[in-house]
Structures are given as structure tokens and as C-alpha cells.
Amino acid sequence: MVFSKEDKVLIDVLCQEKGYGAKKFTKEFPNKKWYQSSLKKLLTKTDQTGSVHHKPGSGKKHTIRIAQNVDSVEELLLSQESAQNSSDCERDWNFQNVCA
């Protein structure tokens, strides 16, 4: 279940101020269709980190597009293309010899 930023803040505030648990949230907000397991995970994360927001540095790491990386990828692609062409030639040669 994906919670909006507003939902996360609401959940955090009600949990801290009124002591809401996962069951209470599902009863009080049935139109949101939140799962208790998702709420429990969010509440656990909030208890451990003290925040409903992502930790800095979490998530997918991005690589930087620099000339060296571009050149490396280009070389790799060219080497794979030449290897693929040689296997195609071998396959064609074998097919011609079998069919002859």
C-alpha cells in the first residue's frame, strides 16, 4: 500500500497524540482502504526512525553519465555485436553444410 505524504503525516500525528494503532486506523478511515499490515510497517518505521519520511541516501543509487562511462558502454556493445556476428556466420555455415 502506498501512502500519500498527507496520509503519512496524519497517521504519525494520530499515533503520537491519540495512540492510534493499525486496527484503529482501519476502523476510523474505512474509505482509505488501508491494510493493517501496511500500517504496522509504517508505524514500526516511524517508531524506529522518528519520521515518516525517507531516510537521506535511501533508494536507488544513480550513476553519473561521463565520457568514460559512455565510452566503456560503447566498447562493450561493439564487442558483443562482433561476437554475435561471428556466431551468426557459424550458424549460417553449419546450416548450409547440413542442407547441402
The amount of beta strand, in percent, is under 5%
Helix content: 55-70%
Radius of gyration: 28 Å
Q: Can you give the mean pLDDT?
A: 79
Task: Decide which structural class fits the backbone.
Answer: mainly alpha
Description:
By secondary structure, this protein is an all-alpha fold. The protein is 68% helix and 0% strand. It is built from 4 helices and no strands. The model has no long low-confidence stretch (mean pLDDT 79).
Please provide a brief summary of the model:
By secondary structure, the chain is mostly helical.
Spell out the key features of this protein.
100 residues, 2 domains, 4 helices, 0% strand
What's the layout of helices and strands?
Blueprint: H1 5-18, H2 22-28, H3 36-49, H4 67-99
